[in-house]
Structure formats: C-alpha cells, structure tokens
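pinning this so it doesn't scroll away 📌
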Amino acid sequence: MALSRTDKEQIIKELAELFESSKMTVVANYEGMTVAQMQAFRRKAEETGSTIKVVKNRLVIKALEGDDRLKDVDKSLLNNMLLYVFNDQDEVAGPQTVKSFVKEAEAPLEFIGGITVEGEFMPAEDVSRLADLPSKSELIAGVVNILQSPAKNVVSAVNGKLPAVLQAIEASKS
C-alpha cells in the first residue's frame, strides 16, 4: 500500500525529531533478517532505550536535508535495505545493541555507518569499535570507583592497623 503525501510528511517529521534528539544514529543493513529476528531485535532495542526505524531511505534523506545540522551528512551509503537505530541517552547503546544482537541471534545485521550528533557520517569500522566501548553508566561507575579507591584504602589501612596501634600505646603505658 502506497503512503499518502501527508503520511510521508508525518514520517519525515518523526525522523527529524529522532535525528535531533539522538546522540548517535546507527545505520545497518538488515537484508536477510527474518520477521522473528526483527521482532526480537526491536524488543532488545527497547530494553536499551533505543528506537528502531525501518523506512524508505529517501524519506530519511529528506529528514536529514531538512535539518541544518545534518544536511551535509554523506548520503551515498543510504541505499538498500537499511534500518536506523536511534538512542537519545547513550552514544554507544545503539552500536552495542546491534553488535550484541548479531552475536546472540546470529542475525545478518551489518553496520553501514553512523550519524553523529554533530552531523558527520561515521564509517562502519568506527561504529563497530564504538560498540566495544563500555556504556556510559559503566564508565561513570568506573570513574566513581577510581575516585573512591584512595578513601577505601585509607579506611582499610586504619581498620587493619588501628588495633595494633592501640595495643602498642596501651603496652607503652603499662
């Protein structure tokens, strides 16, 4: 069933909003995926706060061209059967979702690239490397752990040595 002009305009508007709010948009080829795999992928994406859109590439191009920040994005690779993974919370969540789903379900998803918030088209290799990074919450937890480490070490040292120091002081008094 063909989409009406108003339906297309609505889709372009929705895509423009997703591009505007997304920290990283992953572009992936989904050719060969079954309907069951696509449904499972959508569920996994929802768990990570990502949104999956499968739309005609020319509508995506129209949405990109309508945004001053994204109008210069390289659109030459936006052809074939592509899906778009948007995430407005974490830059690495989208790439990680795709990569982990490919491992779990052995799905034929392939990175084509990514569109950054600055309006640059990131090559597939860079998106794949981004997927290997820890998530934002994992990085924050690591930094907090590093910052707490010296205080924990001091407390451990005081707790471990304090009884011995108190015994030595008591022994010297008597």
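📌 and the second one:
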Amino acid sequence: MSSPPPPPVPAPPPPAAEEYRREPDPKLDPARIIATIAALQARIEERFPGSGLGRVAAELLRIARLTVDRVAWVTRPNLWLRAAAAALVGLLVGLLGALLFTVRPQTDTVHLAEFLQAVEAGINDLLLIGAAIFFLVTAEGRIKRRRALGFLRELRAVAHVVDMHQLSKDPDAYLHPAERTPSSPARQLSPYELSRYLDYCSEMLALNSKLAALYAQNFDDPVVLGAVDEVETLTSGLAGKIWQKIVIVNRSLGQPEG
C-alpha cells in the first residue's frame, strides 16, 4: 500500500508593500541612465555598424552626460544673483522710507482733493515698487526656467530624429518586397533585423523620456513640469507607433506578441 502524498507546502506570504520600496524617496539615478544609454549605443553599433541610428544614440549619450551638469546647475542656488536681488530690494525699500520721512506738506491744512491725489500717487508708487521687487526676487527662477526649457527642447528634437529614422521602416514593405515601386527606399534589413532596429528606437525614446524626468524631479517649476510632461507624452506616442510595427514583424516571424 502506497504512502499518502505529503501535505502541500503553503505558499509564502506576499512581500509587504515596503519591500518594493527600498528608499523613502526613490529617484532616478543619472549614472544608471547614462550607463543604459551607453550600452544601447554599443548594441546598435555592434548590430548596425556605422548606421544613422547609432549616431543618434551617440548624440543622446552626449546629451545624457551633459544633463548631469545641467540639472546640477538648475538646482544649485545662485548666491550672487540672490545677493544682488536682496541688495536691490533693500535699496528700493530704503528709498521708499526716505521719501516718506523727507516729504512734508507745505501747509497745515490739506484739502480733500490734494489728499486723494497724494493717496493715488502713493498707491501707484507702491505698486511699481512691488512689481520691481517681485521681478528681482523671481529673476533666478526665470533664468533657470529658460535654461531648462532650452535643454528640454533639445530632447524633443532628438525624439523627432528617432521618429524620422523609424518612419521608413514599414513592416509591410519588408514582408512584401514584390510590391515595391521604383521610388521605394531600399530595404536592406531582414525581418529579424527590422524588429531589433525598431526595438532600439523604442528604447531610445524611453531613455529620452527619463532624461527629461531628471529635470522634473530636481526643479519644481510648473512651466518646466509641463514641458517634461509634453516630452513624455511625445515619446510615449512615438513608441506606441513603433510597437505596432514590432507586433506586425513578430507575427510574421511566428513570435509571441507579449
């Protein structure tokens, strides 16, 4: 008589939510992003040596290395500018105080019209001085915002360049070469190589988005955050089109879509 089967081993409990979060405030690591881009650029050069896509990856790697210093510049307080703004604000406040103490009415009696005119002039002066103080106090943020937006425009340009490289990689043209026309671009990639090419484009767009996210996690400016969201939306939309092509190629190769 055979012995009864051993009792089933109970499954271990799922890990607590805290185990998925190693740090209290997880952030993107610029060094890891740069290493990933460098590895991607090497993979592209090994499979497609001398290709235009490899040059785009090299340009993205150059921008990634510059991004570390750029983000540091954006987040670093500009002490000279702050000191100059504080000195100018103090000067304006001092001038306003001097005017209040030195101006004296010419007569003991002040008419209502003169009083209202003096109040209106004082309010206008206060508004102008307040606007000047606001301009000086926010000068640092505006300068950094303008620089950050320029850096993000560079990332948007790279995303469009990547899209131009994959634009002519139409799976139907590779899978049905007999349908080519005299003006059709040359098709020199096999279906497998086409799948790898498109996958590299998708990876490059994702890494481009991560470089933009570095500005969002280090510079809390609403305009910059909006520009970062635009870059992420752009790269996600372009990657979605690429993945549709990858699915078509994988179906022709008999590979699973997921």
